[in-house]
Amino acid sequence: MNSVAGSRWRRELALLNELWSTGRGELIVTFERKPTRVRRALSEFLRDKSHVYFVSRPALERDLLTDLSRDVARLTVDPLLSSMPILSWPTILTYLADCGETRRFVLVLDRFEYLRLATPSLPSLLHDWWNEMGRHRQIIVLVYECRLPLEVAKPER
What we know:
Blueprint: H1 3-22, E1 26-32, H2 35-46, E2 51-55, H3 61-76, H4 79-83, H5 89-100, E3 105-110, H6 112-118, H7 122-132, E4 139-146
Parallel strand pairs: 1-4, 2-3, 3-4
Helix pairs in contact: 1-2, 3-5, 5-7
């Protein structure tokens, strides 16, 4: 890694740690062509923090929500959520907000472009949820989107 990339990585890591230390809700949206540096900073940052790192993929909305529910259930140790996934974005976001009332954690939505393909209204849903609930909780939400070529694989319907 060259020194410019290395110093940028260290600055990003320092910023994430500074945001964590405030205890406030934070929403971070980032776009990158080359995910390696961002993922390296995130990996280091998340090492000792409660977190859900959700990597999306081309899939139907219900499949993505099932996967996200499973990941959230690992964080919350909720046996009901493990066996009965939440299949709507407003409901899972409300569940996360409830969790954020009593504990600090990070939610990473990696490859957000696939979530947008499956649920075109998700950016608006996330925006409204953040303004109404998320920002008042102890959650850091990091929305991470890779810039892909114009043709993105769409899930079969």
